[in-house]
Amino acid sequence: MYKFGFVGMGNMASAIAQGFVESGFIPGKEICAYDLNKAQLDKMSSFGIVALNDAHEVVKESDFVFLCVKPQVIESVVADIKEDLKGKAVVSIVLGYDFDKYNTLLDASTRHLTVMPNTPMAVREGMCLLEQTHSLTDEEFSTIKDAFSSVGEIEVVPNHLMGVGGALSGCAPAYIYMVIEALADGAVMQGMPRKMAYKLASQTVLGSGKMQLKTDLHPGILKDNVTSPGGSTIRGVKALEDAGMRSAFINAIEKSMNK
């Protein structure tokens, strides 16, 4: 069994680690972590994850080192542990840091892969992008694919598509939560209790996504199958089109990429 170590245990890293443990892929005791915010580490103790005193200890105790810090501090963090990372396997979730960038930051003996996960991994419904170009061994790459497959779906993505892929699967959960909230608000306005409205909206979003994945039908076909001539659904569709829903989502992806 490999040992996983997390340098940084923010919301995304917590979702990944929680998913790995709850899926049964790896016991919590085989995961260690360090974060400046001790409360984040305390929160993960319920999953058996071992809190360590600094990043150096994490690297020493781990076969795979997950770099999960903010982009603005990643270079200083890597510089501090660069010597420790020699000969190690690194998995990074840091936005904007791809294979080429890490080649300039890490020792040549450090093998590395950039991934773009999302927070639904905490409930094993995640979407993780794995950069096509990497320097992990075949066995290491297979292990990471298995790990992320245990908490959702994976896609090996060409390097030039990692940015837009990350904007779609990484940022869009926030947009979907807004959709759920807005749909529920509409039902609440018509008299439905909020908890019931959230359940109906969330399950509808979940079921609709699964139906598209299972059938592989174009979303437009699935939409047409629900919209009867002159019916209530087509009136709702018109209201959304009048409000510029499509343009709003397209613009959201564009803005997510233009940091």
Automatic annotation (TrEMBL):
Family according to the record: Belongs to the pyrroline-5-carboxylate reductase family.
The protein's UniProt keywords, in alphabetical order, are: Amino-acid biosynthesis, Cytoplasm, NADP, Oxidoreductase, Proline biosynthesis, Ribonucleoprotein, Ribosomal protein
SUPFAM superfamilies in the record, alphabetically? Answer: 6-phosphogluconate dehydrogenase C-terminal domain-like (SSF48179), NAD(P)-binding Rossmann-fold domains (SSF51735)
- GO MF terms, alphabetically ordered: pyrroline-5-carboxylate reductase activity
Q: What function is annotated for this protein? A: Catalyzes the reduction of 1-pyrroline-5-carboxylate (PCA) to L-proline.
Start and end residues of each Pyrroline-5-carboxylate reductase dimerisation domain: 161-259
Q: Name one GO cellular component term.
A: ribosome
**Which compartment or compartments is the protein found in?**
Cytoplasm
Report the InterPro entries cross-referenced here: 6-PGluconate_DH-like_C_sf, NAD(P)-bd_dom_sf, P5C_Rdtase_cat_N, P5CR-like_CS, P5CR_dimer, Pyrroline-COOH_reductase
Kindly tell me the pathway this chain contributes to. Answer: Amino-acid biosynthesis; L-proline biosynthesis; L-proline from L-glutamate 5-semialdehyde: step 1/1
Which NCBIfam families does the UniProt entry name for this protein?
proC
Organism lineage reads as: Bacteria, Bacillati, Bacillota, Erysipelotrichia, Erysipelotrichales
Domain Pyrroline-5-carboxylate reductase catalytic N-terminal intervals: 3-94
Name-wise, this protein is Pyrroline-5-carboxylate reductase
Provide the catalytic activity annotation: L-proline + NAD(+) = (S)-1-pyrroline-5-carboxylate + NADH + 2 H(+); L-proline + NADP(+) = (S)-1-pyrroline-5-carboxylate + NADPH + 2 H(+)
What's its EC? 1.5.1.2
Enzyme class per UniProt: oxidoreductase
Family annotation (HAMAP family)? P5C_reductase
